[in-house]
């Protein structure tokens, strides 16, 4: 069974679900605060593991053996490469706004970012981490991977709603004003 682990789509879906369920459980145990918040000491150890479980399956999935959809190669390249470039650009722009000191990916100083790419969409990192693997799945014509990425996006929407509730509690009126100014949670002019 273990020798087929990497080539089995169910294995990668299982790893993602393990990360997702663990995240939700830890969010609940921590009374509605993300486990990587400053108050939650175990977060600095769990954060890299959970980020691995949530993201690596999406990048590996397109490469495993699966049915390939029949669009012409030029069409998938014309769709996938700009999506990949946009995802990388959004990730870089979102990372440039991270002026707070961090330790192992954990913010030491909490600050609400409202300028740059955060002035266009409230969750640019979630946008980037969903665009990049989806574009890779499209480029490789990976049928299961595209379906998985659609499911993964829905899972990330729960993170967005939970995080916005926490940010509103933490930053209060400042975050409510930011939500009025930047209406788009994820995709500008769409959602």
Please give a quick description of this structure.
The chain is mainly alpha-helical and about 190 residues long. It is about 60% helix and about 0% strand.
Write the layout of secondary structure elements.
Elements (H helix, E strand, L loop, with lengths): L8 H21 L13 H18 L12 H24 L5 E2 L2 E2 L16 H16 L3 H29 L1 H9 L10
Antiparallel strand pairs: 1-2
Name the CATH class: Mainly Alpha
On the 0 to 100 scale, the average pLDDT is: 81
- Distance from N terminus to C terminus (CA atoms, Å) equals 41 Å
Tertiary shape: globular
Helical fraction equals 55-70%
Number of strands: 2
- Count of discrete structural domains: 1
Poorly predicted regions are: 99-107
User: What is the overall number of helices?
Assistant: 6
Given helix and strand content, the structural type is: mainly alpha
Could you state the order of secondary-structure elements as H and E? Answer: HHHEEHHH
Sheet with most strands: 2 strands, antiparallel
Strand order of the largest sheet: 1-2
Question: Strand share of the residues?
Answer: under 5%
What's the Cα radius of gyration?
Answer: 18 Å
CATH topology tier name: Four Helix Bundle (Hemerythrin (Met), subunit A)
- The CATH architecture comes to Up-down Bundle
Outline the structure in words.
This protein has 191 residues and is an all-alpha fold. The protein has helices at residues 9-29, 43-60, 73-96, 124-139, 143-171, 173-181, and strands at 102-103, 106-107. Strands 1-2 form a two-stranded antiparallel ribbon. The N and C termini lie far apart (41 Å). The relative contact order is 0.14. Mean pLDDT is 81; it is low at 99-107.
